[in-house]
Each structure stands twice: as C-alpha cells, then as structure tokens.
Amino acid sequence: MIRLYTLCVCLLLSSRLFAGEADGRLDIYFIDVEGGAATLIVTPAGESILIDSGYPDFGGRDANRILHVVRDVAGLDHIDNAVVSHWHLDHYGNHAALASQIKIDEFWDRGIPDSLQEDKGFDERIANYRAATQNISNTLKAGDFFELDSPNTPLTVKVVTASREVIANEGPKNPYASLHEPREEDKSDNAASVSLLMEFGKFRFLCCGDLTWNIEGKLMTPNNPLGRIELFMVTHHGLPVSNNPALVRAIEPLVAVTCNGPTKGGHEDTIATLRACESLKGNYQLHRNVKLGPEEQTPAEFIANTEETERCKGQWIKASVDRNGDSFTVQIGPEGKKQTYQCRPAQVATSK
C-alpha cells in the first residue's frame, strides 16, 4: 500500500501480493529498451512500480521486453503503478500499449502539458496515453512523500524534482557545489523530469529520469539534500547534458547502472565523472558503447549487452535488496553472477 503525504492529503492505493513477498526482498529490474528507459520495482509486499516504458514501434520490441520481465521474470499478473518521468517518447512510448495487454491500476506523471514543442506527434501520442488512463492520472510534485507496505523494513519514496521544481536545499554543505557551472537553460521536457528517491533500511536508490544540468545544480547547491546513495540510475542514459558532477560526486554512489544503448548514452564525459567517485564499487551498463574502446568504458563483465541493436538479446540488470536493507546483489540476466554490496549508513534521512 502506498501512502502519499502532501498538503495533508493521504491517498491510499491498493496492492496485491505476488513476487517479492516470500523472501521480503526489494527487487529492481533495469530493462533493456535500447537507449530508452524502463525500470520495474517490486516491493517486499509484492507491489509493482514501472518507471517509464521505452520506445513504441520496432515490432513491439520494448513493450514485449517489459512484459517478459513483468510476467515471466517477476511473476506478476498486473502492474500496480505506472510512472512517467517526463514526456519524451523513449520514456512513455509504451504506457498505452502495455495497458492494452496487462492491467495497470494507477498512473503517475508530472501533469500533462497542453503541447510539447520538441515533439510534433505529441498530440496523437498523448491522446493514446489519456485513453489508457481514462483521463485519470496522479500528478507528482517535488516534495511528495510515499510510504509503501513493507512487512519487515520501512520503505519510502520521495519526489525530489518534478516540473523544474526541486525540494528545499537543506542538509550538509555540498563539498562539490563549486563543480556546478550553469549552462544555457534547457527548455526541453528533460529538465522537467520527475526524480525519485527510494529508501529501504540503509539502501537508497535514486532515479532522475532525464533531468538536466541546471536543475541538478539547483537541487544540489549549495547544500546536499539527498545524502549518500547506494544505487544510482545514471541520469539521461549517461549523456553529458546531465550528470552534473555537483550531484554525482556529492551522492557518493556505491553502484551505478547506466540505461544506455549501443550508440546512445554511456558518454565518455559521464564515465569520467563516475570514475572520479572513489565510492563507486560497481559500474554497470545495459549496453556496450560501440563508439568507445574497451578501456574507455566499464569492464565487459559489467555490461549486459555487447551487440548492436539488430542482434541484441535484451539482457536486463537486476538489483535485489535483502529484507533488512543492509546489502544488495546485482546480476546481469537470469544466469549472471551475483555481486554483493554492503550498504552504508545514510548521511541524510528522508523526511516527510
């Protein structure tokens, strides 16, 4: 059950018990959608949250990969919550298609704009989304706070950015604040991305959609309101218009996962920013960047897919957190070796 606390309003969502309940673990699947984004979270109570849904078309490639993970890997027969981080096609392209094939209980987004200048097909695409949601979706705002059902360890989610707004810049001084150098304003919907901070015991997961440089700086300077992050979904597929070092260095990620494609994302500048983090123990990529040499990106054993798109098998990456939130494993695909990482105490506690 999710409880959203904002302006003294409490919204209760129903949940059903499926995958995750037996072992009390929190599971996070990074699904390969060839440079888009689709992240499935299954809570210890079996509640599911799908953040973004990849590209449409391509013979249903991305929708089918998502359904495979949802049904065959996670063992779910429905999706409790489908979230849109922002209104770009590689992030909400399959919400309507998925809703036609599997039950989705609740839809969440930052609010639907009247138009989107950078997408000439937005009117048609958003009409499909409205039809799938029956014109009922929940609007997320910076500062919204959720409590999710969890039998052993408290599980919370906080919205830290949405619609270019950020949470209050409270917390300890950010020692990397000076690395933020403002850039030209990004007027695209990337800058309006919803960013989510999930906390489960010592485990903390940050997912910022395609949030871009200046809003990252607004969030993280001069203070650090996020604290230390155990698992960081590298922002915007690892592109350098995002991943401001004032954010990446400050959160001291223990493990990073880049949801890139063979030729999209996983940029050398972002890789350099990650390598500068002394805290980083595991740096995973969904794809090998075919434009870079082996020494210019993470080692091969941390890359899920090495082929170009035409031959790609679509291997996923899974993080699984123990029932107390003290440690987590990361593996590539169903046969991948599990690497175990010990969580560190949080430096900043999430508050309502």
CATH architecture: 4-Layer Sandwich
Percent range for helical residues? Answer: 10-25%
Low-confidence stretches: 5-20
What is the overall number of helices?
7
CATH class: Alpha Beta
Give the secondary structure arrangement, pairings included.
Blueprint: E1 2-6, E2 9-12, E3 26-30, E4 39-42, E5 48-51, H1 61-73, E6 78-83, H2 89-92, H3 95-99, E7 103-109, H4 122-133, E8 138-139, E9 145-148, E10 155-162, E11 165-166, E12 195-200, E13 203-207, H5 213-220, E14 231-234, H6 245-251, E15 255-258, H7 268-275, E16 282-287, E17 303-305, E18 317-321, E19 327-332, E20 339-342
Parallel strand pairs: 5-6, 6-7, 7-8, 13-14, 14-15, 15-16, 16-17
Antiparallel strand pairs: 1-2, 1-9, 3-4, 3-18, 4-5, 9-10, 10-11, 10-12, 12-13, 18-19, 19-20
